Amino acid sequence: MKRKTAYFFLFFLIILSLGSYAFFFSSADVIPFDDFFTFRQVDQISSQGVPLLFDTLSYQGRFHPFTPFYFYLATIISLISSTYVVLLLSLLLFAGFLLVLFFFVQRIYRRYWLSIFIVFLASTTILLVGSFSLISGELQLFFLLYLLLLFSFSRISEKGHFTKFLFILILATFTTPFSLIVILGFILYLVLLALERMQIRKEELEAIGFASLFILWYHLIIYKNFLVLSGTQFIWDSIPRELLADFFTSLSLPLLIQSLGFIPLFLGLYGMYDVLFVKRNRYVLLLTSFAFISGASLLIGLLPLYAGLTFVSINLLLLSGYGVTRLFSFFSYFSLPWAKNAFLITVSFFAISFFLIQLVTVEPPQGIDREELLAVQNLSLDQAVILSHIQEGHFLSFSTSQQTFFDQRFVFANTPQQRFEDARTVFQSQSLSRILEVVERYGITHIYISLYTRELYGQEEFFFESFECFYPILESQAILYEIQC
């Protein structure tokens, strides 16, 4: 395949992928819950120039431990559209991801048709299309930077690429703590090189050494106090026990097949097997290292479900290219030239079929209806403390500018486990005295009940709603009660 033809197909696949992504995102006609934290950060950076680190509204006042690069990028995109800033940024990141994937595969395997084939598999993988609206914006940006990091590392011996590697590494570190996984991947890569008795290049060793020291140094600065007091266990201790199963789910083969698809999974695992036991390839060993680390981290519960699955799928897609090249070598060895075209046509047919089936059956992201957002924004509240479902915390902080009881950013929050249990008491208790005890303890002034909350708790009417001291001041799709007891 010629370069111009490859570029044409690349452009077509990117447009197709963005259309699929927009369809998936807009099918729910809601604003995802996590977007509201980004909206708050964009407003803060636009007005003050610095991110919202100490939040007086979340958990009635807390410190946010995060790296702000994504939110500065979102602030720039907000100049185009403040309403659809997260969607626009997600589309740009996904398009950039496919573009970098194309050039990275071309760099490793030196075949344009194979680059197009891998981009095609990525654009028909429901996990990548769907999870880019199910994971946080910081992780979307990190996965793009991750590809760029591996791309620059593969060219580390060339002039100027060491500097590019360091620049991308710093950006990735400033994006998310997921950058800590990079250290483990690089260490395993060095181990595999040693086991295969392949030369460890000086430039690679220097780059890996700097990356490890910088990432560890940066995160030790941010998390030093908590690591000294509690060790790494403080991350898991921050998440309510009842929600751990949703955040950290063990990896299973049926789940991976359903999310990634059988074809990329088979080709990726075949590529791993071949490079480890049949034919050595330096770049593919690098990909194998990160595929193993990402899979192992998800398997033992170190990574959240969708983020971990996305990380695994990216590495397996990269390894699929090697699986295809080795499979085609097998066809050539047995003089089966017709098998190559037959294989590509068959794989493309099943990939598209699987993608279309998944696209219409997969659950869209959950969030807030735009009418509900406008109704809440029209309220006039003063010195309120609002209790809601934990998913809706940042939505209420953004729309009312009032303190909220809790939300899903648990790390460094004020007693998240106790608050989760007390919120459950308010929603499930059949004792008014117990409910009022929780209300008085935290100074709660309002309770927000949405259709989403009723569905999750499986109740058409909560016990406290029958008492006159809970007075509704908003009655639309959701009800906001003012506590007058």
Overview in brief:
The protein has 485 residues and is of the alpha/beta class. It has helices at residues 3-26, 35-48, 69-77, 85-109, 112-123, 126-131, 137-154, 161-173, 180-195, 202-230, 233-238, 244-247, 253-260, 262-277, 282-299, 305-333, 338-361, 370-377, 393-400, 416-428, 432-442, 451-457; strands spanning 30-32, 54-55, 62-63, 367-369, 385-387, 403-404, 446-449, 470-475, 479-483.
Tell me what you see in this structure.
- The protein is an alpha/beta fold and 485 residues long.
- The protein has helices at residues 3-26, 35-48, 69-77, 85-109, 112-123, 126-131, 137-154, 161-173, 180-195, 202-230, 233-238, 244-247, 253-260, 262-277, 282-299, 305-333, 338-361, 370-377, 393-400, 416-428, 432-442, 451-457, and strands at residues 30-32, 54-55, 62-63, 367-369, 385-387, 403-404, 446-449, 470-475, 479-483.
- The longest helix has 29 residues, at 202-230.
- The mean pLDDT is 84.
